[in-house]
Amino acid sequence: MVLKGSRFRRLVPRSKHANMKTRKLFGISLSLLIINLAAIMERADENLLPAVYKEISEAFSAGPSELGYLTFTRNFVQGLASPLAGILVISYDRPTVLAMGTLCWALSTAAVGASHHFQQVAFWRAVNGFGLAIVIPALQSFIADSYLDGVRGAGFGFLNLVGTVGGIGGGVLATVMAGHDFWGMPGWRFAFIMMATLSAVIGFLVFLFVVDPRRRIGNDHDASEYADRENLVDKGGVNSVSIWMESWTATKAVVKVPTFQIIVLQGLVGSLPWTAMVFFTLWFELIGFDHNSAAALLSLFAGGCAMGSLLGGIIADRMSQIYPHFGRVICAQFSAFMGIPFSWFLLTVIPQSVSSYYTFATTLFLMGLTISWNGTAVNAPMFAEVVPAKHRTMIYAFDRAFEGSFSSFAAPVVGILAERVYGYDPKSVDPVSGSTREAFALSRGLFSMMAVPFGLCCLFYSPLYWVFRRDRDSARLSSLKEEEMI
């Protein structure tokens, strides 16, 4: 049958529209796929060093306080440099910024694997923090722009789920490889170089194939958000004065938002336990678990966190529909509170012996399932609702700046408490069987930096019951006014 006349002409545009829609959906799916791969590698890179703390300690004769210093160095630099991400996304598409940061952390990861002095490791961990400072805020704002308000918690939860899979892979891989040599190279060094190579490949994929959501918005029904950025970059180059003025305007707009101030306040203490947890692998090995058993325990914890972040995101999305003004806050306080009993039971009640393996495993999984909601279900979605879309990268950047720089002190404090208060002696550790006495000392240092901060975090969320609604309404009104002016 041959179609003629007006009937044929009506069908042609529909076919073109369908093809364009299919290409658009394919581009969005490909971008999100590669972004999730980048999140996997980012979390894998974060977990590499803590997974081989024991080997680092033996290679450089370093105790817990020196190991904590390495984590402090990376986190502190990451916190200080995070606002740079908010400035860079004004001048460049986020895929370009993400690729730059990914290649930076890939270089530093390879350099750590090749280092022969403790000071070299510390320097390259600082460079690693600089790369992560660029990547994480841009990654979070990318996801915020890719999902609507009602499902944003699930979007962040899924990102954290796949990222945690990468963290599990990185931690398990490094822990298992640490017990072997590869072509004459210690396994922990080979793991760093291999992970750096994979990260560099992902960085190139991000640069080549990922499309910024703002560009998609600009090509569709509302060009205003993308035009804000385009106006700052002329044909011949970047207007640096306009960029710095826009950065300063965004900074002032973000910092004065009460919801941002409250979430940052809780994050200052709420992030301390998570930074302290980098010692979990060392603690289990001191108890006497071998590399494979320690990796399995940490994998269960990470798996619980991954499932919990997605579950928490879905529950918080549902709660926000039933109680739009405080549903997410309820979820946040529940998750933070659960950190107290689990920390107490894990670190002080369970006998610190290899015979307690299954008790440790069950506790770690349930702990991860319940304490991992805040970032993906509450903080990240709320940030996206209380500022205009063009300021989202800046609000995530400043959140990382404040929380990252403050939480970086947790790791060295755990080491100092373990050594100077509870009597940890790195010279007493047996390379094979560990040391029960030192494991006990480290567990007490960990408990001090976990239970109390979890309680304060739960308390500090309370003012959001009153201020979140007002800040969200103000952001929506501001966005409507900007649209009317264009």
Quick synopsis:
By secondary structure, the chain is an all-alpha fold. Helix content is 81%, strand content 1%.
**What number is the mean pLDDT?**
79
Number of individual domains: 1
Put simply, the count of helices is 23
| CA(first)-CA(last) distance | 49 Å
Return the string of H and E elements. HHHHHHHEEHHHHHHHHHHHHHHHH
What is the assigned CATH homologous superfamily? MFS general substrate transporter like domains
Class from helix and strand fractions = mainly alpha
**Major beta sheet, strand line-up:** 1-2
Gross geometry: globular
**Major sheet details:** 2 strands, antiparallel
CATH class assignment = Mainly Alpha
Radius of gyration: 24 Å
Low-confidence stretches: 1-12, 220-238
How much beta, percentage-wise? Answer: under 5%
Q: Count of DSSP E strands? A: 2
Helix percent band: over 70%
